[in-house]
Design a protein that fits this description.
The chain is mostly helical and 281 residues long. It has 14 helices and no strands. Among the domains are: 100 residues, Leucine-rich Repeat Variant, CATH 1.25.10.10; 95 residues. α2 packs antiparallel against α3, α3 packs parallel to α5 and α7 runs parallel beside α9.
Length: 281
């Protein structure tokens, strides 16, 4: 009799374990999975990508966080092909850029960069005016970069003054790069003067900017930039100075690209060595 009861308990216990497993784990787990799948499917079916106009509406009427995040998204996604109603978009962009003087500075920074991304020359006067009014360094640099992206020639005299007079190397550097992108050869002399500047990045980008203008005044600097060993003179440090590995690769890449613009036999030895021996593919 006792043996029969024992056998029955043995047979019943596995059944109870399975019942508990199904009741308290497997069924809730399956419900959770199907719930999650339904949620993501619903999100996918109802998701609508924000248009540039939508983002401008968010910048105008959204919360503080939403305004700068929308401006950031706009600056990343924008080009001419994204703009449908150009007149409405431009008017709204200009209005918000001027209004952003009293907003979170990040909104103004990203709106300025978005203007540059459009490649729409008509934004030039507003960016130049903003540059003349702004005291915030980040906003000034964003306006300088965008004036370069627009290749707004009317800004060259202002950029020249910034290179001469700014106390911030980062601002000088942005102005030098933008002058190079604009490519007005009337402003070569200020770049030639910067070839002897104490900050390496200023010297390097002045040489690159001159090369874009077909001027070989900085060719010895560009030859150095094609030499990986040269960068060992500027080791990366904990305080952010120097050049890290990624920056070295990027600088070499830019120097190589410039040699296609400023064709010169003096580049041949360095380019040949890089093509055969450099560690970066």
């Amino acid at each position: 009799m006792s043996e029969n009861l024992k056998d029955n308990n043995i047979n019943e216990n596995p059944s109870r374990v399975y019942a508990l497993f199904y009741s308290f784990f497997l069924i809730p787990f399956m419900i959770a999975i199907f719930g999650a799948l339904f949620f993501f499917m619903f999100q996918f079916l109802t998701y609508e990508k924000s248009t540039p106009i939508d983002l401008l509406e968010n910048i105008q009427s959204g919360s503080s966080t939403k305004r700068w995040q929308s401006a950031f998204e706009l600056s990343n996604m924008l080009d001419k092909s994204e703009v449908i109603n150009k007149e409405l978009f431009n008017n709204k962009m200009i209005f918000l850029y001027e209004k952003s003087k009293y907003d979170d500075s990040r909104v103004r920074t990203y709106l300025a960069l978005a203007m540059g991304k459009t490649k729409d020359y008509s934004f030039g006067p507003y960016l130049l005016e903003g540059l003349n009014e702004d005291e915030d360094l980040t906003n000034r640099i964003a306006a300088i970069q965008s004036l370069g992206m627009l290749q707004y020639k009317e800004s060259c005299s202002t950029l020249e003054l910034i290179i001469k007079n700014s106390i911030h190397d980062s601002e000088k550097l942005a102005a030098i790069i933008s002058l190079g992108v604009i490519g007005d050869s009337k402003y070569k002399q200020i770049l030639i003067d910067m070839l002897d500047y104490e900050e390496p990045n200023i010297r390097w980008d002045s040489a690159i900017a001159l090369a874009k203008m077909n001027d070989d005044s900085g060719i010895s600097i560009i030859i150095n930039l094609l030499d990986r060993d040269y960068y060992s003179l500027f080791p990366s440090k904990a305080n952010g100075t120097g050049v890290n590995v990624d920056e070295v690769d990027n600088s070499i890449y830019i120097a190589i690209a410039v040699t296609q613009k400023l064709v010169d036999d003096r580049f041949k030895e360095k380019l040949t060595f890089l093509s055969k021996n450099d560690k970066s593919i």
